[in-house]
Predict the 3D structure of the following.
Amino acid sequence: MKRLQIGIENTKLANGLDVVIAPDSAAPVVTVGVYYKIGFRLEPQGRSGFAHLFEHMMFQGSANAPKMQHIKLVNSSGGMLNGSTSYDVTNYYEAVPSNALERILWLEADRMRALKVDDENLKNQRDVVKEEVRVNVMNQPYGGFPWLDMPPVAFRNWANAHNFYGDFADLDAADLRDVQAFFKSYYVPNNAVLLVLGDVKAEEGIALARKYFGEIPAGPPPPFADPSEPEQKEERRGHVEEKFGTLPAMAIGYTIPQRRTTDWCAMALLDQALQGGRAGRIHRELVLEKQIAVEAGGGIDDLFGYNGPTQMTTRILHKPEYSSEATLEAFDHVIRDVRENGISSDELEQLKVKWRSDYYATLEGGRGGYMPKYGLMHLLACFTLFDNEPQLVNTILDGFLAVTRDEIEAAARKYLRNEKRAIVFRTPVKASAKEAA
Amino acid sequence: MATRTVEVATGIPALAAERAVTWPKRTKARLSNGLEVILAEAHSIPKFHGELFFRSGNAAAAHRSPGLAEMTATVARTGTTRRASRQIEEDLRRIGADLSSGAGADTSAISFAGLSEFAEPLLGLVDELAREASFPEGEFERERRQKLEEVKLERTDPGFLASERLRKVLFGVHPYGQVSPSEEQVAAYKREDLQAVYREFYTPENGILLLVGDFDAQEMLKTAENVFGEWAGKKPDPKPTAAPANPRGRRVYLVHVPGAVQTQIVAGCHAITRKHPDWMKLGLTNSLYGGAFNSRLVMNIREDKGYTYSPRSGVNALRQHGFFSVSAAVRNDVVAASLAEIFYEMDKLRSVPVPVPELADAQNYLSGVFSMGLATQDGLLSQLSVVALNELPDNYLETYRQKVRALTPEDLLATARKYLDSANMQIVLVGDRSQIEEQAALFGELEIYDARGARLH
């Protein structure tokens, strides 16, 4: 068994900025990322969707690189750029030919130091974000299902339960003061990590990080609301209308154990057993064998990338001739079986090989080929911000490969319980579904 | 039209000297049974990625039924003379592999990735699927019913409805004109039809095997010979199809989706194939127009006006005919305003030469991004696939950058005039008729359809 070993150098600058360099000279390409430890989970109350709207603002201009210059400078250097907002982090990243490295570091440092935006920029990006929400959610069959429908049903703490893309009224209420306040609180070097991967030498990367980021002043420690959930003691259910789609749908989410525990490793392999593609038990029984569902699958979204309550979710689109109750019963049959009988040692061995293979694919994953080393960057960033331990990319696999059958069975019994789950039914307005739930 | 003055950045570090881009050596061979094999080493992770392509897809099967090559590929992975469906899926998991099968207009493919240590068993399974698929009756029936639900479901997706209508408008009765089968056509699929397509398409003479990853190329070639060497089969006879008519004059096709809160715009015209000598010129022109984040259209209707999140243009190369298209999902009240800008930017490229600095930026962009494919196994595989499937010259990857950098403003002006065929663009709008019909009618003669394709007006 060949194990991959990633060479990593990391340091912390005097202003608190973490720096992680992963040199690899195989291609003359370098990937740069800046991750800030704030996502939509802990955005301000009354400002749903703000973390994401703010992400857009970070492309609108900074002290020495006005509007349109960020995009122009990266593209004209031969590279791509983007950003994304998730539960607990927001990232900004570029992949460029390695001769543009200094320019990219200068750009990222410029917008970490000082955002320079006006009301017109904010109005412009508010309009853009609304079209983003329409194209991905409001005008799309099963748009936002279940990632936006599940939280308000499953969780009680506003942090975990609100609309992460944002209510339009909240987006409209956001003003420039909110933008600058959010920037001042969370976009400080002591709440961020800079990553440079690919065609760079470690000492060169660290020296350049010092040169461009070293003088940015640290801020006070950012305020973080408490994301913890009261203990769930009953199954929760909710209903949502499906405006365009023709098939009745449901999603089932189980709250999963805290990250980096033995239970968490066992749960990740259990997730693979249940929903690892066509060999996964849920797809096999509901789609291939019983043929109740057209789609049945899901999983733990971004296993390494969250830092608060989360779920293992299954999304099912089923044939209208089966009721919701019958479909849920077929799903429950799969869950009961694994709770009562666990999994065989042969199945566990298969899962571990697949897990190792998938882990390497995650590291290599490049957002459709245009962003080399995106996956490795994401893991290094999360292991630095959440665990202060980027070297985990080389060791975290061990915990998963050590999971036993007993641990999997125990995790199934402990976490796959009705009182630990939430179910959302998304029912077509038009279809003649037999609604029984 | 972008009205605000664009400020420039100050104090930007200059670019350092460029490091040479070195594409990995390709090992090419033709096995005695006619199978073409292309290998490249890439040692980033202890895995490899592969494609077994066949040079026949849905277009070559269209005389039997639309979408039949896709259905054949789907059912081919559900059983062989030696393994049942469940066995196949578990065996894949046992060796840590992923595998999918599918067909586009011009090719059918088995795509796979797995751990290098299990290369031989994975290739063995690929060979088995390509030679000994048994099309079990029960699996066929299940996949057919599944497909019926899928073809109903896709009619609720605005993006699908837009691209479906555009292809119909651009290619008419040519096989490229129908991107997906109807419910009736799926209901009429027969297992024997799939088997006939399978026998005809899935042959070594019709195939290309591409492998990229962590292996020794010479050893991998031997493994491929051992695994695939016994297989035999001829190239299918080509079925010539009449060239589609090129639609003249702007026309507007509105697909009515009641309650839509946004309008999906897509407009397109005939263009060129990947092999055409103008391909790079059009690629660069497209990149300036709407093919990059920094392009004129994105800066105009997104960053300046905020009409849309996702404007993009692209050159779509099919084997026999290509087309150029531009798309954006916009607010209902700015459909006409967006179309006006879409045409304004097109006409501007057709009338005014691109300033040299802007051209240089676009050349840098295209040649830089082209090299990103070097950095990952699947990125390299997709670059090699484009070269192999389009029969591009062996030095295509090595010479691409210099060819892009040699282009001039005059080249781009001529290219825009030829291919950004503003006067003959076919416009498709998917949205709520009551909100956008008046705006739509401003741009040409209007036809209105429902989501199932029935003409309403």
Q: What stands out?
A: The domain at 251-450 of chain B is CATH 3.30.830.10 (Cytochrome Bc1 Complex; Chain A, domain 1). The longest strand of chain B covers residues 322-330.
